């Protein structure tokens, strides 16, 4: 289904509702018109593609059910010209009221070392199609409890998937350190640009990223240094400093607001960080470039 709305309009609506369900018809770009850092994804697709998820890759032809976690980097290479199916996007907050058994990040479908891709038979595809169609129909109604109903459909998809056998085609790349370093860089970049103060930066240390990637911080540090020649902390600090410069130059936020948006508890901490990184303070930097 061709989507004539802009990416901005789509993301704004998605953030307001906390979910969106839509059909994919021939246009595989429809799977990419949202901000992956904010939303979980369940995608039922038929076609040929290659999925890279954290440090694993999956090549497939036919129908698969995919579970995407916004905290784990992944990418999707569409190979076939015809690619159809359904996509459901939702925030953790939207599903939180009903998904009580465990957090989404600990679910075997969404966790780093879990099973995000499942092969689907034709019989299973027809059944899952029905669930997606019901969600699409329901989100168009004015039913006062439609959010609860859609949550139930999402949970049904999750439970149906948990009953399926995981795909065996996921594999470790030859150089795991290189893949981990690349995953870290992608996850770091995904936090930027900062779009507003409502969502301050959450991962600011090597430990934060190691926990998000479910690896020991020493292993992450080793991978990043061996592959890039620089420490994990250096990459993080350089990226935060560059974002701080951009916010100082291109927004009218005061220094306290910028400090908060970048995850600093106090403006004085941000001032010290910025001066160490640039040899000047935020106010002087802004004034010099205004």
TrEMBL record:
| Domain called HTH araC/xylS-type: residue spans | 182-288
Alphabetical list of Gene3D superfamilies matching this protein: Homeodomain-like
Q: Which domain of life is it from?
A: Bacteria
Query: Sorted alphabetically, which InterPro entries does this protein's record hold?
Result: Homeodomain-like_sf (IPR009057), HTH_AraC (IPR018060)
Gene Ontology terms, MF aspect? DNA-binding transcription factor activity; sequence-specific DNA binding
List UniProt keywords, sorted A-Z: DNA-binding, Transcription, Transcription regulation
What name goes with this protein? AraC family transcriptional regulator
The UniProt entry, under SMART domains, shows: HTH_ARAC (SM00342)
Q: Which segments cross the bilayer?
A: none
């Amino acid at each position: 289904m061709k989507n004539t709305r802009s990416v901005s309009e789509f993301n704004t609506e998605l953030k307001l509702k906390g979910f969106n369900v839509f059909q994919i018809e021939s246009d595989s770009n429809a799977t990419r018109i949202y901000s992956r850092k904010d939303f979980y994804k369940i995608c039922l697709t038929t076609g040929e593609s290659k999925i890279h998820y954290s440090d694993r890759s999956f090549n497939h032809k036919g129908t698969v059910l995919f579970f995407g976690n916004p905290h784990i980097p992944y990418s999707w290479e569409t190979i076939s010209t015809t690619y159809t199916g359904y996509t459901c996007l939702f925030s953790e907050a939207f599903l939180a009221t009903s998904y009580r058994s465990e957090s989404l990040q600990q679910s075997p479908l969404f966790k780093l070392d879990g099973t995000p891709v499942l092969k689907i038979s034709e019989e299973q595809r027809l059944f899952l199609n029905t669930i997606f169609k019901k969600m699409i129909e329901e989100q168009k109604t004015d039913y006062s409890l439609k959010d609860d109903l859609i949550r139930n459909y999402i949970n049904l998809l999750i439970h149906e998937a948990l009953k399926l056998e995981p795909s065996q085609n996921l594999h470790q790349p030859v150089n795991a350190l290189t893949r981990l370093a690349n995953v870290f860089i992608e996850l770091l970049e995904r936090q930027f640009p900062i779009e507003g103060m409502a969502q301050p930066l959450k991962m600011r240390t090597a430990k934060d990223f190691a926990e998000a990637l479910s690896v020991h911080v020493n292993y992450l540090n080793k991978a990043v240094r061996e592959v890039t020649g620089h420490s994990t902390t250096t990459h993080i600090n350089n990226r935060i400093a560059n974002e701080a410069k951009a916010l100082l130059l291109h927004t009218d936020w005061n220094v306290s607001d910028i400090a908060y948006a970048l995850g600093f508890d106090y403006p004085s901490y941000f001032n010290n960080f910025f001066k160490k990184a640039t040899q000047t303070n935020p106010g002087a930097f802004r004034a010099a470039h205004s």
